[in-house]
Amino acid sequence: MERTLVIVKPDAVQRGLIGEVIARIERTGLKLVALKLSKIDRETAHTHYQEHVNKPFFQGLVNFITSGPVVLAVFEGPNAVSIVRKTMGATNPVDSVPGSIRGDLAISLGRNVIHGSDSPESAEREISIFFSPDEILSYERAIDNWILE
Ligand code: DAT
Ligand code: MG
Predict the structure, then answer these.
(1) Its principal location (predicted)?
(2) Mean pLDDT confidence for 23-48
C-alpha cells in the first residue's frame, strides 16, 4: 500500500492549524499510520530537501523548516501521494485553488503550511529520514470497507 510523508510546517504549528491540516487529510479516507511533534535540525533539513540544494531559495527554506516545531505524519492508502498533493494544492498559494489546504490557509510561497511527498519514491526516502520502521503502525479500521473498494 502506498505511503506519503506529510509535514505540518512551522507556520501552521504557530498558527494553531495542526488539527485543521491533519483533519483535512484524515477525512479523505487515507489512514494515519505515524504521527509526531518534532523539531527538524539543519542537517536533517538538508537531507530532506536535497533536491533543492542548488536553488536560490534553499537557505531560506532550511531556515524556515527548522524555525520551530513541526508535525510529521505518514498517511497510507491507494494513491496516497497524489491524493495528498491534490488536497494540499499548488506550491504557490497564489495558484492553489480554494478548497485546497494552501488555497484556503496560505498566501505566501515561503509560508505554505504543508509538505507532501511528490512521488512514491520520494515518499519512501523521506519517511525513512523521519521515522523508524517500528514507529509506523499497521492496523485495521472497521470502516475500511466503506472507503476502499
Ligand atoms: P512543494 O512543497 O509543493 O513540493 P517544492 O518541492 O518545489 O514544492 O519546493 C519546496 C518548498 O520550497 C515549497 O513548499 C516552498 C519553497 N519554494 C519552492 N519554490 C520556491 C521559490 N521559487 N521561491 C521561494 N521558495 C520556494
Ligand atoms: Mg516538493
Answers:
(1) cytoplasm
(2) 98
